[in-house]
Structure to design on (663 residues):
């Protein structure tokens, strides 16, 4: 059911949108072949319908101020859409449907944000977001097969109970699946088994797991879930319990179901104040990412993750790292092993973070320590130490000093800001769906990112540069981000000697090697007794994977501030809804990492600003003069045409006066 609660007596700016909503709902109803019932109702005219909307769905009227010629009044009107499937529902309220912009003329432009995407996303949520495992299995066209690859003779003592627990959990699921779930146990060391260790390594890239971190003894304890179009690997859980094993198997089954609501594990910095030895806490990092969270929650379950345990929860499909910093070896181990197990990691962060400088009363940058730079370098992705400046940039309000009678006056001006790199479609990848139909992208205080193909024999990776700067861009390591227009009147910053396009975001898919193959065990102190009063160290996760399968995916963006709330809000003051392009880019990246491309094309057709190509000052003058010339030529053409027509006119023939008198 799709029901639009819209009052007949509504704000005049919303009235033209009602036919669009009505027509769109009718299109959904026709396209569904009878599976969607759509209607537009006015709850004010039906007390029972209004009570249901208020009490069951939490839909309330919105007060609007309406001004007439002789009076001003406030009306309470409904402008909401309910999407319901069974006992699940999603409500799209007024703020989620409408986008308001101020036009240059001073009027207000009110339009629907992206109704097709909002409706389709809501339908996907109610239909797939809360399905049970039994419903997932019942919807499968072909059965799925779960194979438990285990070597009982070499299992460590901590996993001794794993075979019996897997047998019980998988057997129970198979018993109620109606033949849609098939389970079997295979010992690769058994000579009669259909597969052996060599076959598993060559076909699936499954390496044997060391019994301990540097032990030569190895074992197999993998769960292989094979469906019609996909294969998933399930690794031993951190705790060998029935609950953990069931959660791991059910999460994999849900991921195999088409359109199921997936989980994004979000990591963001804490935002502790930066200390200065002389001035104390003078810089407060900007670490608000609520707008990004809200954007992702339209299609995913988003939750913060704790990496200190060295393991990512089994139901997380994608790790999203925003401005990673202050990471320990255990945090990196969790990220590393998640990628080694075929997971997807999205990293948005460069070498510098953004903070508010209380001393200077403006924005400043600080170098990020203990990030993921070394880990990325091991994976063949280089995160540059410099910052990219580009003459093709987005405007930004900055504090500019103006000399007034010998006094320095600080004022806010909207100026070209080279640190805000403006990327247009001609500088984006032609093949990647992440940037398909994306109108523009602004990467703030971004570091260059590059990826290389591994040199190991048999190692293959697919690498693509998502976005790059313009040919006139350059690099700098100067941490002064305040422009000086007195010294550098053109851009506020000195232009570097070496100019050229810089890669700003890359994607890599293929096999990766573990960062910890030749490094010390980050859980070496887990076995030591803690000191008196100290908390015990986290236990080491079971199993150590040295190489990932071909399905592992890595997205690296050289900026973490381009989706920060304060920066987006400041940008929105000058460019209206252009900042939505940044949020769409991040959601597209998560979609690609999660292999969930259902809504990607629809989202890119939304109401995000499609900006024109930037013009130089000479080009602006040329177009202005051209407009005047065309107007003058048009006036001259009208005058010449009028004169020629006047000359072609023949005078009227007058009758003689005598003949007139005779008549």
């Amino acid at each position: 059911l799709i029901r639009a609660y819209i009052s007949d007596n509504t704000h005049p700016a919303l009235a033209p949108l009602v036919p669009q909503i009505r027509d769109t709902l009718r299109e959904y109803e026709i396209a569904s072949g009878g599976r969607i019932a759509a209607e537009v109702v006015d709850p004010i005219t039906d007390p029972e319908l209004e009570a249901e909307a208020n009490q069951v769905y939490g839909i309330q009227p919105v007060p609007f101020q309406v001004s007439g010629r002789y009076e001003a009044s406030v009306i309470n009107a409904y402008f909401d859409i309910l999407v319901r499937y069974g006992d699940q529902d999603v409500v799209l309220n007024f703020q989620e449907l409408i986008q308001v912009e101020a036009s240059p003329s001073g009027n207000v432009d009110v339009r629907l944000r992206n109704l097709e995407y909002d409706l389709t996303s809501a339908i996907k949520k109610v239909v797939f977001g809360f399905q049970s495992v039994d419903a997932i299995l019942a919807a499968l066209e072909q059965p799925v097969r779960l194979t438990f690859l285990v070597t009982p003779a070499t299992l460590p003592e901590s996993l001794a109970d794993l075979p019996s627990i897997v047998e019980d959990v998988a057997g129970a699921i198979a018993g109620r699946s109606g033949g849609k779930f098939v389970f079997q146990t295979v010992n690769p060391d058994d000579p009669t088994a259909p597969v052996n260790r060599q076959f598993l390594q060559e076909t699936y890239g499954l390496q044997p797991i060391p019994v301990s971190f540097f032990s030569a003894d190895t074992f197999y304890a993998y769960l292989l879930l094979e469906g019609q179009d996909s294969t998933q690997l399930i690794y031993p859980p951190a705790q060998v319990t029935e609950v953990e094993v069931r959660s791991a198997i059910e999460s994999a089954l849900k991921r195999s179901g088409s359109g199921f609501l997936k989980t994004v594990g979000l990591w963001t910095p804490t935002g502790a104040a930066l200390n200065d030895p002389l001035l104390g806490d003078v810089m407060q990092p900007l670490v608000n990412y609520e707008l990004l969270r809200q954007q992702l929650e339209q299609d995913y379950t988003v939750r913060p993750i704790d990496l200190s345990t060295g393991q990512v929860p089994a139901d997380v499909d994608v790790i999203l790292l925003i401005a990673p910093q202050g990471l320990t070896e255990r945090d990196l181990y969790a990220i590393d092993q998640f990628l080694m197990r075929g997971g997807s990691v999205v990293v948005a962060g460069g070498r510098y973070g953004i903070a508010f400088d209380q001393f200077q009363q403006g924005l400043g940058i600080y170098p990020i320590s203990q990030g993921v730079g070394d880990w990325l370098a091991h994976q063949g992705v280089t995160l540059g130490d410099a910052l990219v400046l580009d003459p093709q940039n987005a405007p930004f309000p900055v504090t500019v000093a103006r000399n007034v009678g010998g006094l320095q006056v600080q004022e806010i001006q909207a100026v070209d800001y080279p640190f805000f790199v403006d990327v247009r479609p001609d500088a984006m990848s032609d093949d990647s769906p992440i940037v398909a139909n994306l109108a523009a992208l602004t990467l703030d205080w971004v570091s260059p990112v590059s990826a290389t193909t591994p040199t190991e024999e048999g190692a293959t990776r697919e690498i693509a540069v998502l976005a790059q700067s313009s040919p006139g861009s350059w690099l700098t390591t100067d941490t002064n981000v305040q422009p000086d227009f007195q010294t550098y009147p053109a851009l506020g910053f000195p232009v570097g000697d070496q100019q050229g396009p810089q890669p700003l975001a890359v994607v890599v898919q293929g096999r990766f090697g573990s960062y910890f193959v030749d490094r010390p065990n980050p859980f070496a102190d887990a076995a030591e007794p803690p000191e008196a009063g100290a908390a015990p160290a986290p236990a080491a996760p079971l199993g150590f994977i040295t190489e990932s399968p071909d399905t592992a995916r890595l997205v690296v963006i050289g900026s973490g501030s381009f989706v920060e709330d304060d920066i987006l809000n400041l940008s929105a003051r000058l460019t209206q809804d252009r900042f939505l392009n940044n949020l769409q880019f991040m959601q597209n990246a998560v979609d690609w990492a999660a292999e969930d491309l259902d809504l990607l094309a629809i989202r890119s057709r939304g109401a995000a600003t499609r900006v024109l190509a930037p013009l130089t000052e000479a080009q602006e003058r040329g177009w202005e003069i051209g407009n005047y010339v065309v107007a003058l030529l048009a006036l001259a053409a009208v005058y010449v045409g009028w004169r020629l027509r006047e000359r072609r006119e023949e005078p009227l023939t007058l009758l003689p006066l005598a003949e007139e008198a005779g008549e």
Q: What stands out?
A: The two ends are 86 Å apart (CA to CA). The chain is about 25% helix and 25% strand.
